[in-house]
Amino acid sequence: MPVQLWVAVVCAALCAVLVITTLTVDGKRPLPGDRALHAWALAHRSEAVVAAARVLTDSGTGVWPYLLAALAGILAGRSARGRTISAVAALAVLLLGQGLRLALMLAIARPRPPHTDWATRASGFSMPSGHSTTSALVAGLVCWAAAYGARRILRWCVWVPAVLWAAGVGLTRIYLGVHWPSDVVAGWLLAAAYLAVMVTVTRGRLTGSRSR
Questions:
Q1: Are 120 and 176 within 8 A, CB to CB?
Q2: Which residues contact 56 (CB under 8 A, 6 or more apart)?
Q3: Which helix (H) or strand (E) holds 121?
């Protein structure tokens, strides 16, 4: 079995465990560890860090993720036609992933932490975290693009910032009090499983390019 499929199976299984556990808890209350990490975040807030967290968290929603996905596709292409195809494909992968995340969120319908704990605006249900899932999907697309479009020596210069950005966006959702930690972890696992499947299914066919 390809490595990507192993990643998909493991991440999907872990995500399923989180979801099933949440659904079996009366009132879909926080899982073990959620309250402690949530309380720690509330106790360690400062105005400066909250302001910075709001800026970072806003980069994980709205138009920015779609612009980054399109740019990732452009980077992956090896010709004008290839760049167009891969940009459209990257956006399609992101949109499909968003649809999957939204369907799961509505099916779980987990309440968010108390509104009095919020340090930023939020809407909808809590699991999986939309910002965390979206930023992880985009980071994965950026890493995929770098694997195809960047020279070997430059790939880590793209991969590391992309992963750190996605991790940072997810952590801000906990710090700002709008998600339980398990919501964020579920978003990361969902994105990882979905992207691993997409890489396996579309491997080498979206750009017409070969890894260098």
A1: yes
A2: 165, 168, 169, 172
A3: none
Could you read off the pLDDT of 18-34 as tens digits, one per residue? 999 999 988 899 998 99
A 10 A CB-CB count for 106 gives: 10
Q: How far apart are CA 191 and CA 188, in angstroms?
A: 5
Task: Please state the separation of Cα 55 from the chain's center in Å.
Answer: 17
Residues 120 and 99: their CA atoms lie apart, in Å, by: 24
The total number of residues shown for the chain amounts to: 212
Q: C-alpha distances in angstroms, 177 versus 26, 36, 94, 112, 183? A: 21, 12, 26, 9, 12
Secondary structure letter of residue 127 according to DSSP: S
Q: Write down the pLDDT at residue 149.
A: 64
Could you give the CA distance from residue 95 to residue 101 in angstroms, rounded to a whole number?
Answer: 10
pLDDT of residue 208: 46
Question: What would the two tokens of residue 58 be?
Answer: 């806003």
Contact 190, 101 (CB under 8 A): yes
- Residue pair 172/184 in contact (Cβ under 8 Å)? The answer is no
Please, are residues 82 and 208 in contact by the beta-carbon 8 Å criterion? yes
Query: How much is the pLDDT for 212?
Result: 41
CB-CB contact of 132 with 192 (8 Å): no
Flag whether pLDDT at 211 surpasses 50.
no
